[in-house]
What we know:
By secondary structure, the protein is mainly α. The chain contains 23 helices and two strands. Helix 2 packs antiparallel against helix 3 (89-99), helix 2 (57-71) runs parallel beside helix 4 and helix 8 crosses helix 10 (285-303). Residues 1-23, 339-389, 407-420, 489-493 and 548-560 have low confidence and may be disordered.
Amino acid sequence: xVFLSTWSCVIIGSLLSYLAGASSLSDLxxxxxxxxxxxxxxYRGEDGQYTIDPWKYLERMGMYKILLNCTASYFVKxxxxxxxxxxxxxxxQNGWQYxxxxxxxxxxxxxxxxxxxxxxxxxxxxxxADLNYFLCALPFLAAVDSGxxxxxxxxxxxxxxxxxxxKFCYDVSSCRSSFTETMDKxxxxxxxxxxxxxxxxxxxxxxxxxxxxxxxxxxxxxxDRYDYYSKxxxxxxxxxxxxVEFIAAALFPTTLxxxxxxxxxxxPRLLVTGDVAPFISDFTRFQNTFLFVIDYLGxxxxxxxxxSLDLWKTLMESETARTFALRSFDILATVLIxxxxxxxxxxxxxxxxxxxxxxxxxxxxxxxxxxxxxFDCYTELAGPPTVHRDEEMIPRFVPTACAFxxxxxxxxxxxxxxxxxxxxxxLYSLLHDVVQHNPSFPEEGTLDLDVWECIGRNLKCxxxxxxxxxxxxFTTWALVHTALAPLHTAETESSETEExxxxxxxxxxxxxxxxxxxxxxxxNQQLNxxxxxxxxxxxxxxxxxxxxxxxxxxAQGSFINIHQGPQETFVDFVDRLxxxxx
Length: 582
């Protein structure tokens, strides 16, 4: 599957390298790192027990700091100042979640995590905070259990959240009982860390095995949290977990500088309805690109039933392949951030990296010719279009072009927006393969999202059967899908809920704007709303439409037909009416 290998590299590449280093390592620390205590004794009670509240940001960050401090001596052989400690990824992720508002209460029923309330509070209703809890509690308690901290396993207790206490473990005993396999993997990491002959790559294998096991055994516990977020944010959460699996397979080194660079591409706020990467005006180009490829990766993983991930994992079993991928990431990130297309010079650099590797001839690559297929795809992406324009295909081409025109024109009006451009040649190439493999494709063309999803599945089936499908077709299809998605979204949130999501994400779109009330009753005012507002208005209208009964529906059960009986008291009538309304 050419496009899977290529886009996997592109996606991971966009994550791993960007921007120059900071002036000093302390500039890279997560928020409020210096204000967090790094000594376990500060949590000691009179009874010799240590009690820590991980639902307070400073105390959860303090747990990470203790972990970094007690493992620092084992990473001195790799680099000074603890920079190569691969546990840095955990607190840095927690810091990004804090600054982007993802640790705050998404339901807005409390002021937990908000500037107007307790900014340092971590909400138990936050999907991000709940998963991060286990990526803090399990490695911390496993370190205690391994003897790394010099105290007995029963001396540390974590404070429970104000609700859903049964979903969490709070000490070594309860966590080992509920998550035996994962605790064993964290313990194995610490045991290997303490061996004098520990190697950096092997440490990464132990770390990522424990990290992915943590997500695998906890993510389903919090599936109900998705309902608290806008659809774009919930989709990003699902795709993020998939992306972590790809990163883990590549053994990405989670050092201080490496993770700091990577996190420059993460969304700086919660996503709201109408956010469509790579055209989010208040995101940087890198952030837009990051979000676009993460969404693409999630869609491909879902549509292939994780076949793409399995292929990537098999490929990454080879040390040569991992070395090649890590060397290529910097170049591929440059493609995504600084260029719209892969050019010939870059292609030569990528191929030189591979063929000049001293081990390339000595070690066979799993998956047979997967690497060669990747180079085929690079060549195809870099080369000139070769599809002949059939005039009879023009009607089929128009709807697709209109969809891109709509989003591209919107994006071009935004000061900071940028993203991949799709040429007419690319669209003709796509339509050529679509018509060839989908004879029932409508003559007049279509913007129907369901049709395009069916087309994608058909193209994949033809490709897997060995039939000729252009690599560029898959990438262009993904862009078409992204362009059409906001036109056909079926999300049905009320305007008040939309305003809540906007407030949570720091987006200034109000209920008055969505409903055309107050000063926004004037048409001229409505014509100057932010682009996201129009997307949200459409969704609110869809909700209202879907709540209307079908024509001819028998309204006998409706409360509008409930009348007070001639002998019925008013109190009884109101009671009966109230029950009917529900």
